[in-house]
Write a structure and sequence with these properties.
Number of domains: 3
Family: Belongs to the AAA ATPase family. BCS1 subfamily.
Structural class: alpha/beta
Number of helices: 17
GO molecular function, one term: ATP binding
CATH architecture of the largest domain: 3-Layer(aba) Sandwich
CATH topology of the largest domain: Rossmann fold
Biased composition (Basic and acidic residues): 473-503
InterPro entries: AAA+_ATPase, AAA_N_dom, At3g28540-like_C, ATPase_AAA_core, ATPase_AAA_CS, Mitochondrial_chaperone_BCS1, P-loop_NTPase
Mean pLDDT: 82
Order of helices and strands: HHEHHEEEEEHEEHHEHEHEHHHEHEHHHH
Strand order of the largest sheet: 8-7-10-11-12-9-13
Number of strands: 13
Organism: Rhamnella rubrinervis
Bound molecules: adenosine-5'-triphosphate, magnesium ion
């Protein structure tokens, strides 16, 4: 007996033979057609060729209405080993759209200076995206390219329906690149840039200032800053409103910038506040050393090189330049300026108007994205009013001596205590003397491994008492000097009066004669 399946197979054999014959017939007809077409097409006029090509494209569009855009990892590996910016941005973007959930094969990499593993989709994986109601598909792959020395290079390919072509090329790709760049910046450690003078190596030994960076690790935060709580809250709210104010700034037609002037005695936390601002907003810091800038043109060049989401800082602005000299043309300042010019070739230097242009340039649309500029000074009264007027420096923040509230923040930071029996004495003394948060912090630091909170608080009380004594001595010395000056004035006045009377007598006598 023949089993049922075998019987069915035997029945199918003639059908399969018919199919094979059919395929062979179609194949040979196609080959004949193509041969005939290639012969005929040689004799067709150019216009007809053109029409046929257009028809072919339209037919292809009908059968396959999708567009593909490929973004390669390298433009020309032979020329540079640098990955293309677009590829890197797409990689970051794709990793952000929930890659770990949709893709089963991922790549993990650890970037230089970054302790976090960055995930991205592995080769030949697909990620689906949606934008303005359109469905889009990204595919990762590898291809060998003649241009790239036949090396295999990775690529991302975007596939979408032809009807979305305009939207994709005009909005979606820009959105992907912007978001990708943003994600990359957010994920990498913050940087602190400083401008250094570099010799160009030419015979004229000219030098130019350029930015160099290192990783920004500063533990400062708003929680650990000792300052008036109300003021602290106001600054935080101002910064948050700024960082989230893209649409608002666009609506009111103002560049997305904000200027902060921090002033106060040394050691009151100006630099610490800048670090706290950078940490909170996750912005890079550009620490601009004006004395290393040759002239106004170079200053402008440095400005253009700054990136968005950054804080540009000019510390001790009154010491950096002869900015005050424009209003107070003191001989001393002028003399030192001339000496400086002789010493270096920075003959022109950065002037007040150069700096004003720099800030206004920053405020203009020549640089995109948000930027904050911060000036610090110990002597706000010395600064030119034009430099710090509202609109250039929007918020003026005074950092002052340590109050009891500030001390409590420092006690929490350094000793991890909220209250202590010695706090009452400290509150009384801190109200009587001027002590900077830096000095308070120094006293709360352990001097030996055995120093407990009691010891450190008594160190502070000792320092406060000493400061009080000193202040009293100073006040006494001042009072003494004033008293002596007054006495001297009183002694001199009668003598002048007497001599006046004598003079008058002599005149009377001579008139009488
Ligand atoms: N308000 C503060 N809150 C917390 N710590 C502070 C504060 N002020 C100063 N300190 C401490 O003192 C040190 C010096 O402070 P900082 O450098 O911020 O002062 P500054 O105002 O910038 O001084 P300068 O005018 O000399 O540049 C900081 O490292 C920090 O430890
Ligand atoms: Mg400082």
């Amino acid at each position: 007996m023949v089993p049922a399946t075998t019987a069915r197979l035997i029945k199918m054999v003639p059908k399969m033979a018919t199919l094979t014959t059919l395929l062979a017939t179609v194949g040979s007809s196609m080959a004949t057609l193509m041969f005939v077409w290639s012969v005929i097409s040689q004799y067709l006029p150019y216009e007809l060729h053109h029409i046929i090509r257009k028809l072919k494209l339209r037919l292809k569009d009908l059968l396959y209405p999708y567009v593909k855009i490929t973004i390669n990892e390298f433009r020309d590996k032979a020329l540079s080993n640098r990955r293309s910016d677009a590829y890197v941005a797409v990689e970051a973007y794709l990793s952000s759209i929930n890659t770990s959930k949709t893709s089963k094969r991922l790549k993990a990499d650890m970037e230089h200076h970054n302790s976090n593993l960055a995930l991205s989709i592995d080769e030949y994986q697909t990620v689906n995206d949606e934008f303005q109601g359109a469905k889009l598909e990204w595919v990762s792959g590898k291809s060998s390219s003649k241009a790239l020395d036949k090396e295999q290079i990775s690529f991302y390919r975007l596939i979408f329906h032809n009807k979305h072509r305009e939207m994709v090329t005009q909005s979606y790709l820009q959105h992907v690149i912007e978001r990708g760049k943003e994600i990359r910046k957010r994920n990498r450690p913050k940087r602190i840039y400083t401008n250094v003078c570099r010799s160009s190596g030419s015979a004229s030994s000219s030098s130019a200032s350029s930015w160099v960076y290192s990783v920004f690790h500063h533990p400062a935060s708003f929680e650990t800053i000792a300052m008036d709580e109300e003021k602290k809250k106001e600054i935080i709210e101002d910064l948050m409103a700024f960082s989230e104010g893209k649409d608002y700034y666009a609506r009111i037609g103002k560049a997305w910038r904000r200027g902060y002037l921090l002033y106060g005695p040394p050691g009151t936390g100006k630099s610490t506040l800048i670090a706290a601002m950078a940490n909170m907003l996750k912005y890079d810091v550009y620490d601009l050393e004006l004395t290393a800038v040759k002239d106004n043109t170079e200053l402008r060049k440095l400005l253009v090189e700054t990136s968005s989401k950054s804080i540009i800082v000019i510390e001790d602005i009154d010491c950096s330049l002869h900015l005050t000299g424009q209003r107070k043309k003191q001989e001393k300042a002028e003399k030192s300026r001339l000496e400086d010019e002789k010493k270096s070739e920075k003959a022109a230097g950065v002037t007040l108007s150069g700096l004003l242009n720099f800030i206004d340039g920053l405020w203009s649309s020549s640089c995109d994205g948000e930027r904050i500029i911060v000036f610090t000074t110990n002597h706000v009264e010395n600064l030119d009013k034009a430099l710090i007027r509202r609109g250039r420096m929007d918020m003026h923040i005074e950092l002052s001596y340590c109050g009891f509230e500030g001390f409590k923040v420092l006690a929490m930071n350094y000793l991890e205590i909220e209250t202590h029996q010695m706090f009452d004495t400290i509150e009384r003394l801190i109200g009587e003397v001027k002590i900077t948060p830096a000095d308070v912090a120094e006293n709360l630091m352990p001097k030996t491994l055995l120093d407990d909170p009691d010891k450190r608080l008594s160190n502070l009380i000792g320092a406060l008492e000493k400061a009080k004594e000193k202040a009293l001595e100073k006040a006494k010395a001042k009072a003494d000097t004033e008293k002596k000056a007054k006495q001297l004035e009183e002694n001199v006045e009668p003598t002048i009066k007497e001599s006046k009377v004598l003079d008058e007598d002599q005149t009377m006598q001579s008139k009488a004669m």
